[in-house]
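Record 1 of the preview.
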Amino acid sequence: MKGIRFTEYTPEITDNASFNDLLKIFLQLLTLTSGDVSEALNWMNELDRRYNLTSESYGMGNFIEDLKSNNYIEENPENLRLTPTSKTAQSIRKQSLEEIFGKLKKSGAGNHKTSFTGSGDELTSEKRDYQFGDSLDQVDLSGSIRNAQINHGIDEFNLTEGDLEIREKEFKSITSTVLMIDISHSMILYGEDRITPAKKVAMALAELITTSYPKDTLDIVVFGNDAWPIEIKDLPYLQVGPYHTNTVAGLVLAMDILRRRKTHNKQIFMITDGKPTCLKEGIKYYKNSFGLDRKIINKTLDQAAIARRRNITITTFMIAQDPYLQRFVREFTEVNMGRAFYSSLQGLGEFVFEDFVKNRKKRVR
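->
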């Protein structure tokens, strides 16, 4: 009996290269290169040399011309440098959403279903007596007229407040979210790319909220030595810098943004490798990358307590496996009474999705 014989894999040469197939690869590479079109195209040429991505009838030159004609890239007339367009950024976000949240079904504007009844636009089967302050559109006319006939007889119609019956509406929450992304040097340390999965998750979450929950708000904060807000359109091109990790600055900025939001439900999602290493004191930076510095840790825990008092839940997505860092995250989570997920880079998107959707079904505390 013969066993299985293994031979070298030789990819089949086909003649069906298409723009859309190559575009998917290009968008992935553009995320990895933080928006460097030339580098992404050089990588594509190398992949084409190794794996025959293109065909005799459709080569890389044709693909580049189609990128220009379809407004995915544009050429700077002064330095002839190729740069991505806003259409490209939106396409990367959509692709990230499909990749991470592929099973998501759009549920309409502001459709955050919860287990509570209250102000909303979808009637339920539950009914109750009228209470002062109920809106007229909640009155069940058939039920109220029936009550009036039962209570007062059918000879002389008389409808009173006591006859009114109200149909409950499903409460739909509106949430303000700040997504904090660690861009310190440790996010690419030891050859492990942690920033690309973080960017993909952020882009998918941004696309999810803007398309399915447009009444919600999403702000993006990045933090290294300092913290600053960025726009959603800048997410695909985010880069790690030669920074330490000033988690305190990120939390302070995130809570300041949420303070200006007029929604009841407020939350912070923080993607990090877990170790604060920096504080800003006046114009100087206090830094310590060795272990966990108690001065820095205490200041970070103080911010967790402040967020708790302001009813802001912090969900930490920890993408490092060090036991001592996980202990710190557990302490941070206990102080805030928030949530923490210890995720591999491959599972990060699923964790964020599950927690975000879960919070749509309840009031965030």
